[in-house]
Amino acid sequence: MTGSGIDVVFVNGTVGAGKSTLAEAIGELEVQAGRPHALIDLDHIRNCWPSPADDPFNHTLELRNLRDLTANYRRAGAQHLIVAGVIEERSAITRYQAALGSTAILLVRLVVDPAVARDRLRRRHADDEPGLRWHLDRTTELAGIIDAAGLDDLVVDSSHEPPAVLAEKVRTAAGW
């Protein structure tokens, strides 16, 4: 899906792929273009402990918070929303679209060479051995889940291209 009707870019990918970095780079280009926008990192808006046993990743809380944040950002004038997060199954797209009040979402799959992801995760979790182990295991598992789901409107590889180059590709695909 491409075109000017897209009001949300959702950057999807495994841990260590660079979702937050790409979202920030897209945001910088939006600033340069003078386009009112908001960045939403789903990791931050669902970070609550403890998680319910039936919702270990706090998706229910995430969607409630997303609805409220989106309404506030839209009232503040944001025309575009740039979201960094994970969608693992097709049925979740409808829930995110509703929470975002979106007319059209561009779902961008950010892929990364596994060795690059491991290096990023080792730097990010240098002082957190249990967290590092969990993220190293999760990156391969999650990449497989997202790949099998086949949800992507656009696929970009963050292994070696600078975030600004990838951000321009995404904005072009979104018609922004």
List the helices and strands and how they pair.
Elements: E1 8-13, H1 19-32, E2 37-41, H2 42-45, H3 59-75, E3 80-85, H4 90-100, E4 105-111, H5 114-124, H6 129-149, E5 154-157, H7 163-174
Parallel strand pairs: 1-3, 1-4, 2-3, 4-5
Structural notes for this entry:
- The chain is of the alpha/beta class and 176 residues long.
- The protein has one domain (8-174): P-loop containing nucleotide triphosphate hydrolases (Rossmann fold), CATH 3.40.50.300.
- Helices cover 51% and strands 16% of the residues.
- It contains seven helices and five strands; from the N terminus they run E-H-E-H-H-E-H-E-H-H-E-H.
- It has a five-stranded parallel β-sheet with strand order 2-3-1-4-5, with helices on both faces.
- Helix 1 packs across helix 7 (163-174) and helix 3 packs parallel to helix 4 (90-100).
- The longest helix has 21 residues, at 129-149.
- The radius of gyration is 16 Å and the shape is globular.
- The two termini are 13 Å apart.
Could you provide a short overview of the structure?
With 176 residues, the protein is an alpha/beta fold.
Q: Keyphrases for this structure?
A:
176 residues; Rossmann fold; globular; 5-stranded parallel beta sheet
**SS element count, helices:** 7
Which outline best applies?
globular
Distance between the termini: 13 Å
Q: Please mark out the parts with pLDDT under 50 across 5 or more consecutive residues, or reply none.
A: none
Helix/strand order: EHEHHEHEHHEH
CA radius of gyration is 16 Å
Helical content band: 40-55%
Mean pLDDT: 95
Lateral strand order in the biggest sheet: 2-3-1-4-5
Largest sheet: 5 strands, parallel
- Decide which structural class fits the backbone: alpha/beta
